[in-house]
Specification:
Blueprint lengths: L2 E7 L2 H11 L8 E5 L6 H12 L13 E5 L5 E6 L5 H10 L6 E5 L11 E9 L4 E8 L7 H10 L4 H23 L6 H10 L23 H9 L5 H11 L3 H7 L14 H10 L2 E2 L2 E2 L2 H12 L6 H20 L1
Parallel strand pairs: 2-5, 2-6, 4-5
Antiparallel strand pairs: 1-7, 3-4, 6-7, 8-9
Helix pairs in contact: 1-2, 5-6, 5-10, 6-9, 6-10, 8-9, 10-12, 11-12
Length: 331
């Protein structure tokens, strides 16, 4: 299943800001298909996206030139194509000629392309002159997501303890709450991807279990499947094991979101908005209870550090506070 998100944009400023936000949910070079009538806000949206990509100067629709090329700061070359003047056959011809482009392709008037099934992010803008704004619909056709039934089957297969399942469910609720706030502000978020990443982020938590660190302090009898997973992934943390598992199942973007929810290594790699939200939400939940960052880390230090704030714990706490500040500034 693919994700769909709708956002209401009351003016051009919000439309540009929304375009800018798209940059923070890109996981690899991808086609951006822009649809909408004249004046719907496609170019305004693209201006914001190009700015976030680091494109210098104005980005104009290549209505007559058909294509413009711009260098970006991260994703190689931005190829901007305009199909407005082309019929279906000519549009398909131009599309085929640029299919081997290695950067990001932004295609305006993508309605001209018929029956093309490609990995893409589809942006549909509907100008509502009667309401002085526009409705934006995003279809993330670049990332499959598992169903809830599939996630439940994984939990059962790997005999995930009930307390870990409850923790994942609570983190998913925090992710949902934060994601909905961002969408309300006109920010593009893969909200279903964040929620499902939260539901599976500790799917292999057992590979890191430390004797005496469990909340209930009970000794856990190791199921056979746990030993098999540990043998298959020696000396790997649960984030790494989950990333590899999700990627193998065909959920590439979900694997990218999950892999960074632990301690960030130096130098810090740039994080997408979904990675930041999951990282932060995970640090706001003890068992299935939402708490402050300080409460979460006090609990962490008690269970794993004998009540002593080590450099490792202090580093992790500072990282969480940095993410909290970043998220607040982005709203």
């Amino acid at each position: 299943m693919y994700e769909k998100v709708q956002i209401w944009l009351p003016d051009a400023k919000k439309t540009r800001k929304c375009g800018f936000s798209l940059f923070n949910t890109i996981y690899k070079p991808v086609d951006i298909l822009l649809k909408g009538e004249i004046g719907a806000g496609k170019t305004t949206f693209l201006h914001g996206f190009a700015e976030a990509l680091g494109v210098n100067g104005a980005v104009r629709s290549p209505t007559f030139a058909l294509e413009n090329r711009h260098n970006t700061s991260k994703w190689g070359e931005l190829l901007h194509i305009d199909l407005y003047r082309l019929d279906e056959n000519k549009a398909k011809e131009l599309y085929d000629q640029t299919e081997d482009h290695e950067g990001i392709r932004c295609i305006e008037w993508a309605e001209r392309l018929k029956n093309i099934d490609i990995e893409s992010i589809i942006i549909e803008l509907d100008d509502r002159k009667d309401n002085n704004g526009r409705n934006l619909k995003i279809i993330f056709n670049d990332a499959l997501l598992p169903s809830l039934e599939e996630i439940k089957s994984w939990r059962k297969k790997f005999e995930l303890p009930e307390n870990v399942c409850k923790h994942c469910d609570a983190v998913a609720e925090v992710c949902k709450e934060i994601g909905e706030q961002f969408i309300k502000e006109g920010y593009i978020i893969r909200i279903n991807a964040i929620i499902k990443a939260a539901l599976v982020h500790d799917l292999f938590r057992f590979v890191d279990f430390k004797a005496g660190a469990s909340h209930d302090r009970d000794e856990i009898i190791q199921p056979k499947i746990w030993e098999e997973i540990k043998e298959e992934h020696p000396a790997q943390k649960h984030e790494e094991v989950c990333e590899k598992f999700l990627k193998k199942q065909g959920y590439r973007v979900l694997s990218e979101i999950v892999k960074t929810h632990g301690v960030r290594s130096l130098p810090y790699n740039p994080m997408t908005i979904e990675q930041k939200i999951l990282f932060y939400a995970d640090k706001r939940v003890i068992l299935d209870k939402k708490v402050t960052l300080k409460e979460r880390f006090d609990d962490f230090v008690t269970r794993y550090g004998d009540g002593i704030w080590t450099k490792h714990a202090e580093k992790w706490y500072e990282q969480a506070k940095e993410i909290e500040e970043e998220l607040n500034k982005m709203k």
